## 1
Amino acid sequence: MSFTVAIVGRPNVGKSTFFNRMLEQRKAIVDDISGVTRDRQYGIADWNGKTFNLIDTGGFVPDTEDIFEKEIRKQVRIAIDEADALVFMTDASAGITDLDDAMADLLRRTTKPVFLTVNKVDNNERMLDASEFYILGFEDVFFVSSMTGSGTGELLDALVKLIPEATQTKEDEEIAALPKFAIIGQPNVGKSSLLNALVGQERTIVSDIAGTTRDTIHTHYNMFQKEFVLIDTAGLRKKNKEKDDLEFYSVIRAIKAMDEADVCLLVLDAEKGITAQDVNIFSLAARKGKGIVVLVNKWDLMEKTTNTARDYEKRLKEKIAPFTDVPVIFISAAEKMRIYKAMETALEVYANKTRKIPTSKLNDVMLKAIEAHHAPVVRGNSIKIKYVTQLPTQVPSFAFFTNYPDDIKTPYRNYLENQLRQHFNFSGVPIRIFFRKK
Ligand code: GDP
Ligand code: GDP
């Protein structure tokens, strides 16, 4: 389930302060999305056990009068298009400005929920000034101070109320049980070409699945006697968007597709290599616990000698480190080279992600590894790990039971993770390790 909230508002009302507070308090993830002309921010907020994506569509706005208006309109349009709910932020200390009025006009036209949020209400005096904002005519008005955090809890309560509980029909359940792969990547890397190459094969049965979010297209496939669902956003981008927004749109779409997927197929353009943006998307997928396969497309365009692929993979892995146990496949969507291999690998990664290791086997292997290399002594305490078990979670997770759970440091955690990866196949899958008091 993917729910997205966008923050809109003119410059200096406190959007980024608010954004940072939302994420900082909830220990969420912040990713800077570098658009072509401005920086916008994306993160995951978490409130009362419900999570949602938060986007700050603001960022840099040139201060020439006419460009200004245009940029603000664009910002609002992106937010209305992409989000499920909007936070319209204003500033109590400045009162209602012409730009606030102009934005309110645009926002009143959407059917999506708009939460008018009057910021900088740091004290009771400000509260009096702030009441003038009722005049803008929004039903939901919140008075907050992003600086102190006051009022933000009420706003969050109202926001998470909108997140639907997962209810499923029988048909949904059957689809939900199938592996879901998202094809993600920047514009022009060849996502559409890959989809077309797959669809064009007679072994595939294609049917569009209705009822999924409007921003992603789900297609049901049957290949290698296996059923799976491909989630793509490729076709959607060719709407009438302005060029410099293409990249930002593609990032938001990628994140939505990612939320719905078990395994992400991150498509790159071989000639361009992996960009900083791709690395952001890659680490976000890893933190969200998604399986990952990297597809280096347009391999037909590369001049190749004996070690080209090997060297390429090595350089790529340096950039995605520390999570490098990830399959990298060199494909050409145009020449239909290794596109089946790509899908087979995605199915393998899915199998790795859903693998449950029997406890006895896990203990046999891991206790030996622990015996061979003990955790270092901390403050004179010798650390003993007695038992390990896999937890019944979506992302493969392992609990190690020990006398001093807080004294085990990252290097030893990494050692345990590497041992798990060496003995059991978790290629393409982030794994989580917990230490618990025995
Ligand atoms: P943005 O341009 O909308 O992203 O605004 P910023 O988050 O950069 O904030 C603009 C200015 O307002 C900064 O100087 C902030 O410190 C200040 N500010 C933000 N929130 C509050 C608040 O709740 N109270 C007060 N007094 N100042 C705030
Ligand atoms: P998308 O924006 O990621 O969906 O990318 P497209 O599928 O629209 O492809 C962008 C451009 O790259 C098009 O001109 C394609 O013909 C070209 N292209 C896609 N895949 C390949 C490939 O494997 N080899 C070559 N040489 N060109 C490709």
## 2
Amino acid sequence: MSFSKFNKLFFLPFLLVGMLFSQAVRQPDYDLQRQKMVQEQISARGVRDPALIKAMQKVERHRFVPEKYRALAYTDHPLPIGEGQTISQPYIVALMTELLELHRTDKVLEIGTGSGYQAAILAEICDSVFTIEIIPSLGQNAQQLFNELGYHNIHCKIGDGYLGWLEYAPFDAIIVTCAPSKIPEPLKEQLAEDGRLIIPVGAAYAQELVLLTKQKGKLIHKSVIPVRFVPMLRSGGGVY
Ligand code: SAH
């Protein structure tokens, strides 16, 4: 074997490993990152609902995150989605969803579609999801993504979620992903008997997560944890 031939053969494995590595850098292994996220951020913190775990293992969070933040899609943080809004931290999505104690046949209302990620998680668990977004561009982007991903059980509306969605009320569960200073009366009214409402309530960027349950027409109030959500906006400007 000539020296030059030996040289080529010697370097071949390194070349192959290098090529594979650069391929991996170009195409991150989102599936692996997602399974790790569920294990380390969701299961390890006590979330147990099997349907929810399955949904979080399946829904491709990176598809709901702007291109430039995709590498961070499975990290333990909220991320910007444009228009000054954010997609919630994965654990907060899981915690709020688990507290709703969802069943397959439940009809769920979400206020604050944003990226659409939370709605997609709900749509994996329940037959029908209704979601309202006040910022048209975000609502339209989410609707397009739902179509692309085949979520035909998510019904979208651009409008002020403070008012709920009377046409389809009552709802078995309501989840609010933006924070008003008080719980909107229309949402309390649109909650079904035995229904659950999860909502961040309080001053801008410093709220408590509240779980309301309707039993025999009365609302039972439970504080969960302190949270930081974007404020609930009024359609004419300002916040609730
Ligand atoms: N659930 C979203 C989180 C988005 S952040 C997700 O999974 O990505 C909260 C969203 O609530 C923002 O998109 C914001 O525009 C929207 N929002 C704020 N006030 C609202 C209102 N009054 N009605 C409906 N949506 C509202």
